[in-house]
Write a structure and sequence with these properties.
Number of helices: 7
Strand content: 15-25%
Mean pLDDT: 95
Strand order of the largest sheet: 2-1-3-4-11-10-9-6-7
Low-confidence stretches: none
Helix content: 10-25%
Length: 257
């Protein structure tokens, strides 16, 4: 049996069908379900082994990017989401989904208000391809990945920052930086723009919870799952697809069952 993956569709979500295709190629049986349908039948979530919050502009990003979706997660679905996460099932939030996970307090580990994804340091929307270096060996989505990932970003609020109250040292010791922006050769970005496109602390492109099953990232690996999607495909360059990330998540679920 293929692992069942739920792709949550809120008003304003997009690239959800791209994620469904990525999960299908990775070996999962992926289904998109509107948030309102889940609101009517919350028990639906327990039927799935993997949860995805895709990108987009949920609720038109009213009150801030991902904020209203975060309120949904932290109020209407708090028990169901908590049970899903605590059971060890994989969760991934991409771009707007990452913003919702952070602003709901799910990432990083109920530290609501101690970290955020704020406006890009350059003060404008960023739409470009970036290189990602898998870092965390705790995160089930990145563990064992020794190859870079190249994929696009498209966001105005992807700058990951923390407050003085945030336990940064334990966060680092706990191996919770999942992905970091890097140069194409894999060397650290060291905050250099546009290699680090938004000014994120420590070049953070993605983080995980302390359990390692929840990943949030700003870039879009679902938009580089085929060789021909690479921007230099016509020049004979095809490398570092984002499909590896989804294969890791699906493989983890398959081995769990």
């Amino acid at each position: 049996m293929k692992p069942k993956a739920l792709v949550l569709q809120a008003h304003g979500s997009n690239r959800d069908f791209d994620v469904i295709e990525a999960l299908t190629l990775a070996g999962a049986a992926a289904t998109g379900i509107p948030l309102n349908a889940l609101r009517i039948n919350k028990t639906l979530l327990s039927d799935f082994q993997l949860l995805v919050l895709p990108g987009g502009f949920s609720y038109a990003d009213a009150l801030g990017a991902g904020k209203l979706l975060a309120l949904d997660l932290a109020s209407y679905f708090v028990d169901e989401i908590s049970a899903f996460v605590e059971s060890g099932k994989p969760v991934i939030g991409i771009c707007n989904g990452f913003q919702a996970l952070v602003k709901s307090g799910i990432l990083p580990d109920d530290a609501e208000g101690q970290s955020t994804l704020t406006f890009n340091a350059q003060g404008h929307f960023e739409c470009r391809w970036v290189t990602l270096r898998p870092v965390s060996q705790k995160c089930i989505w990145t563990t064992g990945l020794d190859e870079l990932i190249e994929c696009p970003i498209a966001h105005g609020e992807g700058n990951f920052q923390t407050s003085p109250l945030f336990p940064l040292s334990s966060f680092l010791d706990n191996d919770q930086i999942a992905l970091a922006y890097s140069y194409p050769n894999g060397s650290p970005a060291n905050g250099e723009y546009p290699i680090n496109p938004n000014g994120s602390l420590r070049d953070i492109a993605g983080i995980c919870n302390s359990q390692g099953n929840v990943l949030g990232l700003m870039p879009h690996p679902e938009n580089h799952i085929h060789p021909y999607q690479h921007p230099q495909w016509t020049r004979g360059i095809s490398r570092h697809r984002g499909l590896t990330l989804f294969r890791n998540g699906v493989k983890y679920v398959s081995e769990l069952n």
